């Protein structure tokens, strides 16, 4: 999956993955990570997610990374912020009200970029990637985050042959395979959520579960 795929989806406003409401799993399970109120929370492939507003309301500093400039601009505009903008070699940074978004490629991030991070919220990043990219993503994530960082990871699991991703199906077994060398893995919950997602029923899914993990990097 090339960068142009996501850039074109934002350009064509094909953003059915975006949600106006806060994610219920985030609200229910965030405290399991025991994050300090003033900690820096990293949100990979953040889009214009309003979940960043919820994290800020909890007192956290929020750091997102997003490929699409359209998504970054939309986040600040739709939420009434006028961000400060700084242009860098690899990333352009927009910041306002304790929320910073780096506009650029996740895989260009290094340790210095995430040195202050102590928690991660991954609702849709891993599931947005096809199988051939997920191992690279997990390895890079673990390699650039500080030790002991905790990750709230939310995945969807459904019969992959019934629907073309994204979001892609990621099983609990694959999460174990991807992260077992890097982190302690704790499955917090597994819920049948097909009934709450009619758009996925319309796309032909016969079942869907959302799995919520807490990962603690070694």
From TrEMBL:
**Molecular functions per Gene Ontology:** thiopurine S-methyltransferase activity
Localization, per the record, is: Cytoplasm
**What EC identifiers does the entry list?**
2.1.1.67
Name the domain of life this protein comes from: Bacteria
Major site of localization recorded for this protein = cytoplasm
The record ties this protein, via Pfam families, to: TPMT
Q: Where does S-adenosyl-L-methionine bind?
A: 10, 45, 66, 123
Q: GO:BP terms for this protein?
A: methylation; response to metal ion
Q: Name one GO cellular component term.
A: cytoplasm
UniProt KW Methyltransferase keyword: yes
Question: What keyword terms does UniProt attach to this protein?
Answer: Cytoplasm, Methyltransferase, S-adenosyl-L-methionine, Transferase
PROSITE patterns per UniProt: SAM_MT_TPMT
Catalytic activity, reaction form: S-adenosyl-L-methionine + a thiopurine = S-adenosyl-L-homocysteine + a thiopurine S-methylether
Tell me its family. Answer: Belongs to the class I-like SAM-binding methyltransferase superfamily. TPMT family.
What is the protein name for this chain? Thiopurine S-methyltransferase
Which gene does this sequence derive from?
A: tpm
């Amino acid at each position: 999956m090339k960068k142009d795929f996501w850039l074109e989806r934002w350009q064509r406003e094909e953003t059915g993955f975006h949600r106006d409401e806060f994610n219920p799993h985030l609200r229910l399970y965030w405290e399991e990570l025991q994050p300090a109120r003033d900690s820096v929370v990293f949100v990979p492939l953040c889009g214009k997610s309003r979940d960043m507003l919820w994290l800020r309301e909890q007192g956290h500093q929020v750091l997102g990374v997003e490929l699409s400039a359209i998504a970054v601009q939309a986040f600040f505009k739709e939420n009434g912020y006028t961000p400060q903008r700084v242009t860098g070699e690899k990333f352009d940074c927009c910041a306002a009200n304790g929320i910073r978004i780096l506009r650029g490629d996740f895989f260009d991030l290094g340790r210095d970029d995430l040195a202050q991070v102590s928690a991660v919220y991954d609702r849709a990043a891993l599931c947005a990637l096809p199988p051939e990219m997920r191992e690279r993503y997990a390895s890079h994530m673990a390699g650039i985050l500080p030790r002991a960082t905790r990750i709230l990871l939310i995945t969807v699991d459904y019969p992959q042959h019934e629907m073309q991703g994204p979001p892609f199906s990621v099983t609990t077994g694959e999460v174990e395979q991807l992260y077992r060398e890097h982190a302690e893995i704790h499955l917090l919950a597994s819920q049948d959520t097909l009934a709450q997602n009619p758009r996925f029923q319309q796309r032909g899914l016969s079942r869907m579960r959302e799995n919520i993990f807490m990962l603690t990097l070694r």
